[in-house]
């Protein structure tokens, strides 16, 4: 069995975590694959030290790539074991139930979920606010997967590796809810069982729960409910675009107080809005591919050029639609939609898909 643990800034938990796994999995053939997103606290180095003593432990260090779901998938694809377990390294998941989960896999289950909501499970010390938020997210998830599991938001599960391998191209791999993504992508005949556990309180490190994590959950639901027609990254790109429009209009009105020509005011407002959109998209929409330093400056220039071409596409479609339908509002919406789709598609390829140069290796 391969235990996959995505990590970011979990150095202080690593020794206790690996010791706990070793104790829980006595008599079971296992390995631990830590997939670390280049943590600044030195998690990668700590795992290497542990691996030098315990050959069961190895690490995948991801440079320039971020995200829990994609980290889990990468770890699973690096495994050759027939069974994989996914568990956080922060000690909040109960590793002692792993043998029970493996027994259910051996009994014919394809996927076993560590649940906080079945009899015998608990959310531990969660407050009322977090409980209600989790209950709401669970109900929303059931719109997508029905009652396949009582805890679709769980980050603790075990599966046959082939289940992931056979459906890896169907996975969104965006955000943090890889279990929900996997269940939504798996065939209806997938046999899912549960093992209850009590969610522990974190003792080291900081929680990764942020508003962005919640937003990515909503985007995942949208993508799956629309069968991939609306990718989650595009939703966020469009939201940033609406905010950029508000910035554009604000700057345009502000410029009006100085009484320049409309062309000058419009040019300044457009430039400010483009910079605003780029910064937000770089910070949030493409945060797993975030540009820094000189690459960010180059990316901004390319983004402005892309948006300039997108504006031409916008005007062309809007003009055609106005002539066809004679309605300014319809024409404006179709033009804006065309511009957004163009900007998103080309920006994804030319701005945030630029590869870093590989360092030269001396002979």
Automatic annotation (TrEMBL):
Domain GtrA/DPMS transmembrane: 237-352
Keyword Translocase: no
Domain of life: Bacteria
Localization of this protein: Membrane
Membrane-related topology note: Multi-pass membrane protein
SUPFAM superfamilies: Nucleotide-diphospho-sugar transferases
GO biological process, one term: polysaccharide biosynthetic process
GO molecular function, one term: dolichyl-phosphate beta-D-mannosyltransferase activity
The family this protein is said to belong to: Belongs to the glycosyltransferase 2 family.
Name of the featured protein: Glycosyltransferase family 2 protein
